[in-house]
Design a protein that fits this description.
The protein contains 3 helices and 6 strands. With 112 residues, it is α+β, with helices and mostly antiparallel strands. The strands form 3 sheets. Strands 1-4 form a two-stranded antiparallel sheet. A two-stranded antiparallel ribbon has the order 2-3. A two-stranded antiparallel ribbon has the order 5-6. It starts with 13 loop residues before the first helix and ends with a helix.
């Protein structure tokens, strides 16, 4: 499991990328409501090593309401599903949350 979002495009700020990604994925406008956290993520996926720098920030969805019991389906080059999880479950690793270290930082991220 990973937070919603995606790549920062050439010439784009992380703030602009955050707004664009939520518009693309959830058709929603969002506002940044707290400070950014940065995670360096070294991983192996399907046998290939990967390395990414992940920017995470608390947001507020401004113009949509979601039924948190229902998944949200969208396309991001491939079919994707967004789901809502209790932070207590994510801190327990149920399901595992990536990037590494994010679950341990949830309280400080969500309480800016």
């Amino acid at each position: 499991m990973r937070p919603l979002g995606g790549s920062v495009e050439f010439g784009e700020t992380r703030e602009a990328a955050l707004l664009r990604e939520f518009a693309e994925e959830l058709d929603a406008r969002v506002a940044l409501i707290g400070p950014w956290r940065v995670f360096e993520n070294l991983f192996v996926h399907e046998g290939a090593s990967g390395h990414e720098i992940v920017f995470c920030a608390p947001i507020r969805i401004l113009d949509r309401r979601f039924d948190t019991a229902e998944p949200v389906r969208f396309m991001d080059g491939v079919p994707c599903v967004a789901r809502w999880f209790a932070t207590s479950a994510l801190r327990r690793g149920d399901p595992p949350l990536f990037p590494a270290g994010l679950a341990a930082e949830l309280d400080s991220i969500l309480s800016p």
